[in-house]
What we know:
- By secondary structure, this protein is an alpha/beta fold.
- The protein folds into 2 domains: 159 residues, Leucine Aminopeptidase, subunit E, domain 1 (3-Layer(aba) Sandwich); 321 residues, Zn peptidases (Aminopeptidase), CATH 3.40.630.10.
- It is 36% helix and 22% strand.
- The strands form 3 sheets. It has an 8-stranded mixed beta sheet, with helices on both faces. Strands 1-6-5-2-4-3 form a 6-stranded mixed beta sheet, with helices on both faces. Strands 11-12-16 form a 3-stranded mixed beta sheet.
- Strand 11 and strand 12 form a beta hairpin.
- The longest helix is centred in the middle third of the chain and has 22 residues.
- The model has no long low-confidence stretch (mean pLDDT 97).
- The structure holds ligand BES, magnesium ion and zinc ion.
- The site of magnesium ion (MG) has 5 residues, from loops.
Amino acid sequence: MVKEIKVSSKSADSVKADLCITGMFDGKSMSKDQKSLDSVCSGALSSAVELSGFDAKFGKSVQVFGNSSLKRVSVYGAGDKAEFKTDNARDLAAMIVKDAQKHEAKSITVDAGSFGLNRDAFCQAFCEGLILGAYSFNEYKSDKKEKKVTPITVTVTGNASAAMVNKALAIGDSVSLARDVSNHPANIATPTFLANHAKRIGKAKNFKVKILDYKDCKKLGMGAFCGVAQGAKEPAKAIIMEYMGGEKGDKPFALVGKGLTFDSGGISLKPGAKMDEMKFDMCGSSTVLGVMNAIAELQPKMNVVAVIGSTENMPGSNAQRPGDIVTAYNGKTIEILNTDAEGRLLLADMLSYTVDKYKPVGMIDFATLTGAVLIALGHKSSGVMGNNDDLMKEVKKSSDNTGERVWELPMWEEYSEDIKSKIADIKNLGAPMQAGTIAGGVFLQEFVGDTPWVHMDIAGMAWGPTKPSYQPKNGATGYGVRIVYDLLENRIK
Ligand code: BES
Ligand code: MG
Ligand code: ZN
């Protein structure tokens, strides 16, 4: 775990550390600072670069021993300078910190100039990579050695922005929080657990947190959410966080999350294989909590509201049945044809409630909504849909900025035909075996009115991706926190 990242204007050779990291692009020429590092190692660095066949290819490295105050120096290849994008910096930093962990380095210095970290976006990305690459989740190991996390202190030397480093720390910590919350199993990460996290984050300046229970939701007319929740003994919660960092009268931006703490499928029970992974069905809500945590730390000048619907989806004598008809918060009636298509039911109420109560200037929802998005895009991208080109452009721009991929799917009118019910207004299924992710999107569209809105189906990205190196080897990724924080911040400028 990266505990701290400091910035120092000193040169890398004059800061005490277990390990110093410096970078080289194709061409392999040594900078002035690298020549100083070379003399700390009595010329071993230049010899190693020459003799080892080091070619500065991306991710390749050589390491030499230094002296008692700078124990080791590693040179990392960064590849072709023209090809080196911010996400490569994030990726490389994650590789670097993993190597540092292998060598049990507790303090590392990074020669900022050698990686081009004088540019703000690169500095932020690199520092995020250090934090995310060092992430591990060992809370349930009883063996002390396995449980132990070695905190690493990083000093970025040379010309780098302290403000960017601090932003990266806040964002890195917030992605880690999203990962942690998601990785806890369903017997721990209950709706109450999520609500408690929201309350803790909401202790920060400019926050208000409200928790609604099942009865409150029922009274409000959230028939779709309550239909899902009625089969679960574990108490359901709607979690509402208001952040007012902007002007008092300004309408907020809204984030809505699916917080299904366990999705068994309900009466339309899922098959047993990989059912354990359905503890991750609350990853949309951890994305929202992650963003709100970054907001709490960075206090951007804007208003944001977050709404999370959280429950388990369980079978039982009180569970809803296929064929049941429920009435959502906005008055639309829904025929439940499969109790496993529960995410859209929960979101139907959370979205229409958010629109009604807050009239947001824009709204994004995050949900592990369909297995179909994995068939379409694998663990490579989320599937996104929306009703507003400008907001979609913002999402795509922030996707480019952060390396968190999105791919837009169409919501042509014909798809909405597929969710019409014979007996109610709509049904919670589309055409059999067709365009499952889009069916989810057009269903949600029924509950957003004219509010500019984007739906992100993150079922393929919330867990599963293991590349680039800043993704964990197993467990939740915290996908979405970075892209959304970037988008919100761009709205202020
Ligand atoms: N949470 C699941 C979606 C899911 C499945 C995410 C597998 C990640 C991996 C969702 O609630 C669900 O069960 N969706 C159904 C919808 C279907 C019944 C229309 C699905 O995708 O099978
Ligand atoms: Mg389901
Ligand atoms: Zn689900």
